[in-house]
């Protein structure tokens, strides 16, 4: 029995997803033209356009100006956060890729809800913030932030977060929190995702505590979900 053709944009999008999953379109492969797809599914070109938009927003397809629409590819870099953020460049080099990073800059800001929770302070408390944009092969892939209480107005270095201290107490304990979400507006700009809707980010917070169990700082790595695979545990 022949299955009926989908008549809605969502139905066509689901059918194209199935074609990709079955191998009819390989990663990086070009999608058929709008006219051809309209003929194949027996719908208007507007329905095809809307279906393609849904798939772009879902991270399945990507448009290239003047070339067409292609199945989106995902080229992952392996990152092991449990080895320490300072080892990031070494991990990138070990995989035959080229790391680069902008110099970190430090400012004083008011703690938002997450930072206040991590540092166990009131929302709006002044905190020192160091931030750095990291790239792989020239492409921005990670934003790294370090937050510490703004005691004396000096922030801790984002390049050596494990040495962050408060009141002279070294961090000897830590807690890690991982969240997956869609990027904020400023993250879309930093990661150049304006033409890549549907790209999630992972947020990895590493909260360090002193001998008195009080937080002494938190390092937050926000990473493009289409470029980095986060790995924990024993290395092969």
Automatic annotation (TrEMBL):
Keywords assigned by UniProt, alphabetized: DNA-binding, Transcription, Transcription regulation
Keyword DNA-binding in record: yes
Disordered, as annotated region: 154-176
An example molecular function term from Gene Ontology annotations: DNA binding
Sequence ranges assigned to domain HTH gntR-type in this UniProt record: 6-74
Signal peptide range in chain numbering: none
Superkingdom, natural source: Bacteria
Keyword DNA-binding set for record: yes
InterPro entries in UniProt: Bact_HTH_transcr_reg, Chorismate_lyase_/UTRA_dom_sf, Tscrpt_reg_HTH_GntR, UTRA, WH-like_DNA-bd_sf, WH_DNA-bd_sf
Biological process, per Gene Ontology: negative regulation of DNA-templated transcription
Protein name according to UniProt: HTH gntR-type domain-containing protein
Species lineage: Bacteria, Bacillati, Actinomycetota, Actinomycetes, Kitasatosporales
């Amino acid at each position: 029995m022949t299955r009926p053709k989908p008549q809605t944009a969502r139905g066509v999008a689901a059918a194209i997803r199935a074609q990709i999953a079955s191998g009819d379109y390989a990663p990086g492969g070009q999608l058929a033209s709008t006219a051809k797809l309209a003929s194949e599914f027996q719908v208007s070109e507007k329905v095809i356009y809307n279906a393609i938009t849904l798939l772009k927003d879902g991270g399945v397809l990507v448009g290239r100006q003047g070339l067409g629409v292609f199945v989106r590819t995902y080229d992952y870099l392996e990152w092991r956060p449990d080895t320490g953020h300072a080892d990031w460049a070494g991990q990138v080099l070990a995989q035959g890729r080229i790391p680069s990073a902008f110099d970190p800059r430090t400012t004083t800001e008011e703690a938002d809800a997450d930072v206040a929770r991590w540092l166990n302070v009131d929302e709006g408390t002044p905190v020192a913030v160091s931030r750095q944009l990291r790239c792989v092969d020239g492409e921005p892939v990670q934003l790294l932030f370090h937050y510490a209480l703004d005691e004396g107005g000096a922030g801790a270095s984002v390049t050596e977060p494990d040495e962050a201290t408060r009141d002279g107490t070294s961090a000897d304990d830590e807690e890690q929190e991982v969240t997956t979400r869609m990027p904020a507006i400023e993250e879309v700009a930093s990661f150049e995702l304006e033409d890549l809707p549907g790209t999630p980010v992972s947020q990895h917070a590493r909260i360090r505590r002193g001998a008195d169990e009080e937080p002494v700082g938190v390092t937050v790595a926000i990473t493009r979900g289409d470029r980095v695979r986060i790995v924990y545990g024993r290395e092969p």
